[in-house]
Amino acid sequence: MNYLAHIFLSGPDRQIRLGNFIGDAVKGNSYNDYPSAIRKGILLHRAIDDYTDHHPAFIECVRRLKPCFGRYSSILADIYFDYLLASRFQEFSEVPLKRFTRNFYWTMILYRHRLPARIKRFMWHFIGTGRLDKYASVGGIRNSLEIMVRVGRIELPVERAVDYLATHEEELWVDFKPFFGSLQLYCADWIATHQSAKGK
């Protein structure tokens, strides 16, 4: 899953959300350098990635993308799934997308001293451009992919990826909706079983 889904699946705790958001930037055992609630979010991020990578719906989505996108198929599946969450946010949340994302941008600002250096470098651009909100439109997905190509120097065919999303959105939704429902239950259970972790 990509940024928005990781944050959304974290529950209401700001520090758990932050930890889940920075999860990819925290390697190995360095999560132990963080306060317990942020550490919990980092570990939840890893649990979500493992659950997703082994879920039949995600595996099938990646399989269908492979002929067109090769090694970038799993990256695109993550982004497509974030688009489906953002564009139909009301299916999963009573809080509107804009209110949810503004709340998280404030979390980033409040805990900016806890952000890894790599995330600090793009933090203000991320907030200023409303990056999480942009996942709700095909144009925003195009822009996100263009940034990935430019910054990551990868050879992902952006227009082909956008065309695939536009053409296969309903097909992707059929896979995504039950998958995400099961992932929500998994995360709620994971968080409940780790309630003993107290923030510092």
Describe this structure in words.
The chain is an all-alpha fold. The protein has one domain (3-192). 72% of the residues lie in helices and 0% in strands. The chain has ten helices and no strands. The longest helix has 36 residues, at 158-193. It starts with a helix and ends in a 7-residue tail after the last helix. The model has no long low-confidence stretch (mean pLDDT 93).
Provide the β-strand percentage band. under 5%
Helix content: over 70%
The geometry reads as globular
How many helices in DSSP terms?
10
The structural domain count equals: 1
Specify the structural class: mainly alpha
Q: How confident overall, as mean pLDDT?
A: 93
Task: Give the CA-CA distance, first to last residue.
Answer: 28 Å
Report the strand count.
Answer: 0
SSE arrangement, N to C: HHHHHHHHHH
**Unreliable runs, pLDDT <50, ≥5 residues?**
none
Largest sheet: none
Which characteristics define this entry?
single chain, 200 residues, mainly alpha, globular
Structural topology:
Layout: H1 3-8, H2 14-22, H3 36-53, H4 56-69, H5 73-87, H6 97-110, H7 117-128, H8 131-134, H9 138-152, H10 158-193
Helix pairs in contact: 2-3, 3-10, 4-5, 4-10, 5-10, 9-10
Sum this structure up briefly.
This protein is 72% helix and 0% strand.
